[in-house]
């Protein structure tokens, strides 16, 4: 038998159980932001996946072609090494696995003793701070492109497939667009830029690079051995035969 008033605590209607027929509020879905997703994918990707096709292709072909102009006297040695080596150029991501929005990498070969150190960032501009070897060379208008020993700036233009340049761009080009690559280097500083025309006629600087061929690379340069980068003070120096490079800020120490 029940006792007590009907409004005892255990008889009160619950505030947490809405009556039927009253719709519950729904959390609105966040709008899809493809550019934000693209930035996240870029940061988590490795350097090879971002710049591998362009670095191993157009940039490396340009590096081989201009090596003797930028470093006079090494053309014969590079050609001889090309005949005996069985391996093509490697792409090494120096800051892979750290979610970096700026990718710093190398393309080249120890057998040739020739490397191109490059830096790329998603988007139109890379405001920095950047290492001294990143030069804002002009990307237009195009002139007489080619490799000439009497020129202060040498450059070349090459057609590219949209899929090759898409990883470097915030907005990928249309599948059937005619993409182009412009690679331009300053002879004195041995530094240059890679620009992409995604098919709209507008050049976008997408990579900075410098061509490295260290003198005395057979030695281990113990007299210049470093543990900490003198610029950013981090312990992430990548050491190769004849040169060191910081995988965080891109500081370069090479015997030339």
Give short descriptive properties of this protein.
three-stranded antiparallel β-sheet, seven-stranded antiparallel β-sheet, 10 strands, 19% helix, 256 residues, alpha+beta
Furnish the topology, listing elements before pairings.
Layout: H1 34-44, H2 47-70, H3 75-84, E1 90-93, E2 102-109, E3 114-121, E4 153-160, H4 162-165, E5 179-186, E6 191-197, E7 203-212, E8 237-240, E9 243-246, E10 252-254
Antiparallel strand pairs: 1-2, 2-3, 3-7, 4-5, 5-6, 6-7, 8-9, 9-10
Descriptive notes:
With 256 residues, this protein is an alpha+beta fold. 19% of the residues lie in helices and 25% in strands. The chain contains 4 helices and 10 strands, in the order H-H-H-E-E-E-E-H-E-E-E-E-E-E. It has helices at residues 34-44, 47-70, 75-84, 162-165, and strands at 90-93, 102-109, 114-121, 153-160, 179-186, 191-197, 203-212, 237-240, 243-246, 252-254. Strands 1-2-3-7-6-5-4 form a 7-stranded antiparallel beta sheet. A 3-stranded antiparallel beta sheet has the order 8-9-10, with no helix packed on it. The longest helix is centred in the N-terminal third of the chain and has 24 residues, at 47-70. The termini are far apart.
Main sheet: strands, sense, barrel? 7 strands, antiparallel
> How are the strands of the largest sheet arranged?
1-2-3-7-6-5-4
- What general outline do the C-alpha atoms trace? globular
**Which parts are unreliable, with pLDDT below 50 for 5 consecutive residues or more?**
none
Strand content bin: 25-35%
Number of strands: 10
Please give the share of residues in helix.
Answer: 10-25%
Task: Give average pLDDT, whole number.
Answer: 80
What structural category do the secondary elements indicate?
Answer: alpha+beta
What's the helix count?
4
**SSE topology string:** HHHEEEEHEEEEEE
How far apart the termini lie comes to 101 Å
The gyration radius over C-alpha positions equals 27 Å
